[in-house]
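Page 42, continued from yesterday. The earlier attempt failed because a stray header line got pasted into the input along with the sequence. Redoing it now with the clean sequence only.
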Amino acid sequence: MGGGANNCTLKQLHAERQLGIGSVWRGEGRRAYNCILSNCTLSGNSAYRGGGAYGGSLNNCTLTNNSGAGTYSSTLNNCTLANNSGAGAYYSTLNNCVLSGNSGGGRLVSTLNNCALAATPKEGRVIAR
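This time it went through. Structure tokens are written below.
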């Protein structure tokens, strides 16, 4: 999915990618990929990286219960990332966001600006400004 969307719900999408002959792994595919999303909910999606969103920009969105991290390599503004399997955010920049209950930690190798980080089982490296 590329482009943009407002007031949307992306739910239960599973990204698969062929690797070699006959092998499949969860990777890039059907989910928010390099999109601009505003006021959207991304829930129950799965991928090897960025189960909710991969790349792009998310504004006032909620990412919950995604597998393979909530977001990867994205910019998020005023978003909530909760109960994702894997980090809430990986290689991303978050501004004014709330992160809680993500099984792989709130964030890994990400920049958090004025964010709230609550009860997460595991934490990774953070670059805070």
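Notes: The CA atoms of residues 33 and 110 lie 18 Å apart.
Reminder to self: strip header lines before submitting.
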